[in-house]
Amino acid sequence: MRYLINKKRKTNHMVVFVSVFAIAVAFIGVALKIMNFLRMFKKNTDRFILLSDTDVDYSDEVFEDNCIAVVSAKAKIDLSNALPSNNPMNLCLKCKYSNSEVIVPDDWNVKVQGNTVKSNIINEVVFDKDNFEAPLLFINYVSESSNLRIYSNKTEQ
Fold first, then answer.
1. CB neighbours (10 Å) of residue 66?
2. Residue 93: pLDDT band by 50, 70, 90 thresholds?
3. Is the distance from CB of 149 to CB of 98 less than 8 angstroms?
4. CB neighbourhood size of 55 (10 A)
5. If we measure between CA atoms, which residue out of 94, 28, 82, 24 comes closest to residue 58?
6. At a CB cut-off of 8 Å and minimum separation 6, what does 150 contact?
7. Quick one: which of 109, 112, 87, 82 has its CA closest to 100?
8. pLDDT tens track for 30-56
9. End-to-end CA distance of the chain
């Protein structure tokens, strides 16, 4: 009788141990997947915004090529007072589970293009292909489950 009780206790301890071990392995696996995702998303970016409300302001700076990644955050990228480069400029946006705004100057010529998955893109700027004098900005985006709005101060008023 005593043998059966001890055997049952050992079985219960073994079940608890295996359960805790399986949960720990699953948790470590999920953590490694998240770290790998963030590392890949952060790769080749100039700014990485994660879980915050951030304003990126380029006032009185000469704007060159830039790449910004926004993950589970709110970002406002203000180019309205930036100085244009002599060469065509590129702004690369990687958005995932985020809400982002890009404010461009009124006198720049802006071309917007990109890929979306379950996202809402509001482009309020118009590309004028006949205006060769204006500084040229290309906005390239990859957006997944995000909201992205691109506008100028003129369209805001």
1. 17
2. very high
3. no
4. 10
5. 82
6. 101, 102, 104, 110, 112, 121, 122, 123, 124, 125, 139
7. 112
8. 888 878 777 777 778 888 888 889 999
9. 86
| Residues 148 and 87 reside in one and the same domain | yes
pLDDT of residue 10: 58
Inter-residue contact 130 to 102 (CB < 8 Å) = no
| Beta-strand runs (E) in 14-146 | 47-50, 53-57, 66-71, 74-78, 89-96, 99-104, 109-117, 120-123, 136-144
Provide the residue count of the chain.
157
For residues 147 and 5, what is the distance between their CA atoms, to the nearest angstrom?
61
Query: Cα(136)–Cα(144) distance, rounded to whole angstroms?
Result: 26
Q: Are residues 70 and 134 in the same domain?
A: yes
**pTM above the 0.85 mark?**
no
* Domain membership of residue 22 as a residue range: 1-43
For residues 80 and 61, is the Cβ–Cβ distance under 8 A? no
Amino acid (one-letter) located at 55: D
**Strands across the sheet containing 136-144:** 47-50, 66-71, 89-96, 136-144, 109-117
39 and 89, same domain (yes or no): no
Q: Does one domain contain both 38 and 67?
A: no
